[in-house]
Design goal:
By secondary structure, this protein is α+β, with helices and mostly antiparallel strands. Helices cover 59% and strands 10% of the residues. It has helices spanning 24-28, 31-54, 60-79, 88-107, 120-129, 133-153, 158-197, 207-224, 238-245, 247-264, 288-302, 331-347, 380-384, 387-409, 419-433, 444-463, 469-485, 489-512, 518-556, 567-584, 603-620, 647-659, 684-696, and strands at 228-235, 270-275, 278-284, 306-309, 312-314, 317-324, 588-596, 626-631, 634-640, 669-677, 702-703. Residues 1-20, 350-374 and 705-711 have low confidence and may be disordered.
Length: 711
């Protein structure tokens, strides 16, 4: 077995970090969102205490008791960590929030509607803190009852009831939109998990999945005192077939082999491809005898795959089988023993014991294996342009307009001329939502829509007297809309600050002219902090989703063994580079480098050499160039602005850098070929095909042993 000595250079690039999957559970545990609600309760507690002494009409004892209750609730938020989703603590948190608002309605009587602004938290919290649809609906129904009963007890009039209904409609709408948001984030998280632990070429598990699976499975079977078996499999004739048929056909053979293996194992078994032409099968609850039966079935399945080569009718494989606890009890020992038995099987020449099929071998279609689907990370733009959220917002606006029209119609004394101003604001918002296509965050229509919401809130408080509950509902709904529809913290905070300034201006003007009632002024004073808390909470949740999206984009385009780019990045990056250089009439070159001979050793040695090769190639190229591991031990260098005559200089630098991988007399060899745009092709496929053809006819690999002297 080849023993490698690592070079003294900086460590080669390794596998990319796994990152953390952002799920509903992750968002529910975000302390920033938790503290934002605590700050809001603390502000309401202070405001209630001040108003208890400043406004003689309020019941002093009731107000102080409510302020003390709010202070206790805020203290709980500050002193504790966010509870687990759907836990008893989460349910109690939700009950306390809408319970506080219901108690506040009684405490603020006769101005019972003042604390309704805090009800806006119910929609977002319910979507965040409970998981199932049944639990969500149950909490929304309970919240609606808790908010409605006090209003009936204190004797709310018809306009007050309409305002309450508008607030409840906003709560339900907010909850629905937040659920859609969280579902999108969780779906992205599932995609991230899948990409991190599955081989994009074959669809089976990758090296990371195998490592985690072996550790977890062995721990489980040790506790249960049950057997566990592992099959290590190497396609012994794949290397020669890959050279004869071409790399694309070799990829297709690997995909067919993975499909064949997966078709004969059981549902509870796991198939992985950690590297190149090596497959590992983990067999839970299986002893050595059961593993041998599955090994035979795998041999039969591989024997049905035609290679397209006359002298080599089917794929052949060497296998090593180990069982826990018969052979070993430690993961590392089991893995080493399985690999040793696989290599021993290969050395003895026991390929496929099943006789070749009678007659012609199955046809083989040499096509390029399917690349992983390009995944673009979830961004604020995707959420803002989600048609479902946009349609819900448009529907909510239609409902709000209906409430406003009804409120104006039943107003004592008929319509006031200033009602026309609110009608104009709402018509502008409605006109901006008529188009079924959501506007982009940077579009003028989007900024007009967000601004019109803020203006409508302020004007609504001025117009809808003496019970501006509908305006309160719009204000509660406006904060999350601002967070979703704007793409930066600066823009979000600017819009929240603008809405707060409008509320302050209308409140100060109306208070001085005595055109606004005391209850309206108090609602406006308490709505501002509620909007900030809701908006910032939504902003934090969206930033978590975007951070996960960026990690997903990087990981999907990163080779997990070497840390450089993978085939998906090659296809995208090369196509973009060609388009850019075609527009500016600049040259572009690629160099395909294949490292050979050293990859017949153990998997660990192969991985170490791959990482070392990736590091050496990265050191040899310029800062604007890109290294990509295309397949197996083949790398592609993308060299922007490099004319054909400059490729020789890059090749010399590559040779010099790769020579440093030699140590203790070990030999590292490579073969390379180049292609340039536009001389060798005008598309990515044409350039790669030209380089591949030249690689096939490049001759013997270039050795570096003469360049390197062992210490």
């Amino acid at each position: 077995m080849l023993e490698l000595v690592t070079p003294t250079d900086p460590a080669p690039p390794g596998p990319p970090p796994t990152g953390g999957r952002v799920s509903r559970h992750e968002l529910a545990r975000d302390r920033r969102i938790w503290l934002a609600h605590g700050v809001t309760l603390a502000f309401l507690a202070v405001a209630t205490g001040v108003l208890a002494f400043a406004v003689p009409a309020f019941d002093l004892a009731a107000m102080l008791a409510f302020a003390a209750l709010l202070a206790v609730g805020a203290g709980v938020f500050f002193a504790t960590s966010p509870p687990v989703i759907s836990s008893l603590e989460s349910h109690l948190t939700l009950i306390s929030v809408y319970g506080f608002v219901g108690i506040g309605e009684l405490a603020y009587a006769p101005d019972w509607a003042v604390p309704l602004g805090a009800a806006g938290f119910v929609g977002t919290l319910v979507a965040l803190r409970v998981e199932t649809t049944r639990q969500i609906v149950a909490h929304l129904v309970a919240a609606s009852v808790c908010l409605s009963v006090p209003a009936v007890v204190v004797g709310a009039d018809s306009r007050g009831v309409l305002g309450l209904v508008a607030v409840l409609a906003a709560v339900w709408t907010l909850c629905t939109c937040c659920v859609l948001l969280f579902e999108a984030v969780e779906e992205q998280g599932r995609q991230l998990e899948k990409r991190l632990r599955h081989d994009p070429l074959t669809g089976v598990g990758n090296q990371r999945h195998l490592s985690e699976l072996l550790t977890a499975s062995l721990e489980h079977h040790a506790r249960a005192r049950r057997p566990l078996s592992i099959i290590a499999l190497d396609l012994t004739n794949f290397g020669a077939l890959n050279q004869e048929l071409g790399r694309a056909a070799g990829d297709e053979l690997l995909a067919q082999a993975a499909t064949a293996i997966a078709s004969v194992v059981r549902e509870q078994d796991s198939v992985t491809r950690p590297i190149d032409d090596e497959f590992w099968i983990v067999l839970p609850e299986t002893d050595a005898l059961g593993a041998l039966e599955i090994q035979s079935a795998v041999h039969d399945a591989l024997g049905q795959i035609g290679t397209g080569v006359e002298d080599v009718p089917t794929l052949s494989a060497a296998m090593g089988v180990v069982s826990y606890p018969r052979d070993a009890v430690q993961t590392g020992v089991l893995v080493d023993l399985a690999r040793d038995r696989m290599m021993t099987d290969q050395e003895r020449g026991r390929t496929n014991p099943v006789e070749a099929p009678v007659g012609d071998p199955p046809p083989f279609v040499a096509v390029t294996a399917e690349l992983p689907v390009a995944i673009r990370g979830l961004s604020r733009r995707d959420l803002a342009e989600d048609p479902r959220v946009w349609r819900i917002a448009a529907l909510a606006f239609v409902v709000i307009m209906g409430f406003v029209a009804t409120t104006m119609a039943i107003a004592p004394g008929g319509l006031h001329p200033r009602d026309a101003l609110l009608a104009v604001c709402l018509l502008v918002c409605a006109a901006l939502t008529i188009d079924q296509r959501p506007p982009a965050p940077a579009a003028i229509r989007n900024h007009l829509f967000v601004a019109s919401l803020s203006v409508s809130v302020a004007v609504g408080f001025w117009v809808l007297q003496p019970d501006p509950g509908v305006a309160l509902a719009v204000g509660v709904f406006a904060a999350p809309v601002i967070a979703v529809r704007l793409s930066s913290r600066r823009a979000i905070m600017a819009q929240l600050a603008g809405a707060t300034c409008l509320l302050t201006l209308v409140g100060a003007t109306g208070g001085l002219t005595e055109e606004l009632t005391r209850a309206t002024l108090l609602q406006m004073a308490l709505l501002g902090p509620a909007m900030w808390s809701l908006g910032l909470s939504c902003m934090f949740a969206l930033e978590l989703a975007e951070e996960q999206g960026r990690a997903l984009e990087r990981l999907v385009r990163t080779d997990q063994v070497t840390g450089v780019g993978n085939r998906l990045l090659l296809e995208e990056h090369l196509a973009e580079a060609i388009d850019e250089h075609a527009a500016s009439a600049r040259p572009l070159s690629i160099v395909v480098v294949e490292i050979v001979e050293t990859f017949e050793n153990s998997r660990g040695a192969s991985e170490l050499l791959l990482r070392g090769a990736a590091k050496a190639l990265s050191d040899a190229i310029g800062p604007n160039d890109t290294v990509i591991r295309r397949r197996g031990h083949e790398f592609v260098l993308v060299l922007p602005d490099a004319p054909p005559h400059a490729v020789d200089h890059t090749a010399s630098a590559v040779f010099a850098s790769l020579a440093d991988l030699n140590s203790n007399g070990h030999r590292v060899e490579c073969v390379h070929a180049a292609a340039s745009f536009p001389a060798d092709g005008s598309t990515a496929d044409e350039l790669l095909a030209a380089a591949d053809l030249r690689l096939v006819h490049a001759g013997a690999p270039v050795g570096f042993k003469r360049r390197f002297k062992s210490p």
